[in-house]
Amino acid sequence: MTERLHKLLAQAGLGSRREVERWIAQGWITVNGKVAKVGDQAGPDDEIAIQGRPVTVESPDLRVLAYHKPEGEVSTRSDPEGRVTVFDHLPRLRKGRWISVGRLDINTSGLLLFTTDGELANRMMHPSRQMEREYAVRVLGEVDPAVIQRLQEGVTLDDGEARFDEIREAGGTGANHWYHVVLREGRNREVRRLWESQGVTVSRLIRVRYGPVELDQGLRSGRWRELAPDEMKRLYSELELKWKRPRKPARIARPPGTRRLPRQ
């Protein structure tokens, strides 16, 4: 049975649908020795290669990691400046590769999701799903109620109108004030740009939720954990996808080179 090439490779965990479509358009993928075109179909018996390297289309185990990204790490797979990337701390896979569900800029910390399932990544990021992203934002100075109202009604940015679906006060002392904001888009630096459009300076930004997945208070910066079966079931159900229970139990891991924490 054949399927669209970009869907087949995404299901095999080789990239999201968008990534694979871009590779096809750039002429990186061949099927049975011929350069593939967008819209081509392929099956498990076809010989597929990416930039000359043969790949298998056997689907890997469906896994999702919640990673607590620290500030200073970049969200690309490799960095020409030699900076630490979020992929440096992830566990190795025997099949497929980790696909990032969206990105966080270098100065933003918090929840970043990774999966072996390209279809899951595609659905979570697709604008039609309007999946909520929640951030904890620390700003400098008092914020006028009129500013809060404008940010919820909508303001014009350089790439179109944007707004927060929800803004909640979250306390603060002195010059620092915390808010929790929710939006349903993943545009570049959108949270910062919304505040900055009103002359408000963001001094810290943390993503605390993506869809139904929340950032655990006990998950330390630079560490990851596998989503528990009930979390996976809820996530796949919300996205109308089938899910099989993982073989291994969920666990928390520490990045290479760190010591195990003493028992409390």
TrEMBL record:
Enzyme Commission code: 5.4.99.-
A cellular component annotation (GO) from this entry: cytosol
For this protein, the record's Gene3D superfamilies field holds:
Alpha-L RNA-binding motif, Pseudouridine synthase I, catalytic domain, N-terminal subdomain, RNA-binding S4 domain
Every copy of the RNA-binding S4 domain together lies at: 3-63
Q: Which GO terms describe its biological process?
A: enzyme-directed rRNA pseudouridine synthesis
**Record keywords, A-Z:** Isomerase, RNA-binding, rRNA processing
Q: Name the reaction it catalyses.
A: uridine(2605) in 23S rRNA = pseudouridine(2605) in 23S rRNA
CDD domains for the chain: PseudoU_synth_RluB (cd02556), S4 (cd00165)
Entry's Gene Ontology molecular function annotations: 23S rRNA pseudouridine(2605) synthase activity; RNA binding
Q: Which PROSITE patterns match?
A: PSI_RSU (PS01149), S4 (PS50889)
What is the designated name of this protein? Pseudouridine synthase
Naturally occurring in which organism (per UniProt)? Ectothiorhodospira haloalkaliphila
